Amino acid sequence: MASNKIDPVTAVQDSIDSLALSLFEALRGVRDAVAPESLSAATPVQHKEETEPITSENARGELKQILAEGTEIPHEYLNRAFDMLEPDYHAFVLSHLSGSEYSKELVERFREIEAAKVATAAAAPLPAKEEDIGAATEESTPIKYQPPATEPDIGFVGYKFRKLFDAGWFDGKVIEIRPLAQGGKDRRVVYTDGDMEDLSVDDLRDLAKLDPKHNIKKPRLSIKLKKSNSTSGETKAEQPTATSSTAFIPKIPRTEGEYIKLLHQYELEQDTLTTQQLAQNVLEKSANVNNLVANLPGMERTRQMQMDRINELIEKNQTAAKQLEQAYELATQKREDVRTALDEHTSAALGLS
């Protein structure tokens, strides 16, 4: 029956081979993390094996509900969302709506970051505003909304508006003009919570009329409170009641800048985590090699003890070699004596002597 035991020296050799392989993997991981030429190769491809374009019939997730009939989206376009050199924000939005797993990971990380910001802001003390301090002396003059000079006209890309939903007012922005859209709803808009919708220019004009910012006859609630405080002589500053649990957290990055920052930060975190795991693996295997070497027979001896032992073995080997040489010479002499005696007896028996 063959033995399955492994001698200590072989175990050390196997551990060293495993450590060398782990070091190679760690160096390759660090190279991929820092080498610019490896960025494109490290792009997470989500739709590599897909060949047919995405349509309203085969779309998945929320994209199936909003994709117009007859519209086709190539899978290669969705992969542009994760190009580390030139990430495409609109491709990311479509990929997220189609249920991409990598987009889901990015969104979850984004919401974690935003929640941490909200918690930090809620814990920090808020300084008193000058307008709140001077609320008692503020005159009740009508306040009109003054749009900035650079604000785009209604319906143009970048135009901002507000719309009332069941959950309250939400800010929206025109992000795309789609001339081929059906029903006149050719303005693609996105809200602060990440939801998207198609509206027409007339819809945007109607929303502008209903927006409290554009209705100068209806002052805001904060102005009413200031007027009442001024009338009663109270000068207490308004105290915010929003907490981290009630503060608004957007569903997805709202701008291209936010998305690019998120993508690079997430990739950096993943590279750091991978490097840490590789380093931990190397350290564990290195410690295993040290333990195996320390447990080898004779490893508890000092260098001088090892040298003395080696010299002792050399002397024993030399003594054994001399004894072997003497035995060989004796055997050779006896062989010659036997041959000589045999020759003499043979010659005498044959009468040749």
From TrEMBL:
InterPro entries named in the record: Med7/Med21-like, Mediator_Med21, Tudor_AtPTM-like
Superkingdom of the source species: Eukaryota
Compositional bias segments (type: Polar residues): 228-244
Annotated region (Disordered), positions in chain: 224-244
Presence of keyword Secreted: no
Residue stretches in coiled coil: 307-341
Keywords carried by this UniProt record: Activator, Coiled coil, Nucleus, Transcription, Transcription regulation
CDD domains: Tudor_AtPTM-like
Keyword Oxidoreductase: no
Pfam families hit by this protein: Med21
Record's GO cellular component terms: mediator complex
Subcellular compartments: Nucleus
SUBUNIT field: Component of the Mediator complex.
Entry's family note: Belongs to the Mediator complex subunit 21 family.
UniProt function note: Component of the Mediator complex, a coactivator involved in the regulated transcription of nearly all RNA polymerase II-dependent genes. Mediator functions as a bridge to convey information from gene-specific regulatory proteins to the basal RNA polymerase II transcription machinery. Mediator is recruited to promoters by direct interactions with regulatory proteins and serves as a scaffold for the assembly of a functional preinitiation complex with RNA polymerase II and the general transcription factors.
Record's protein name: Mediator of RNA polymerase II transcription subunit 21
Originating organism: Cyclotella atomus
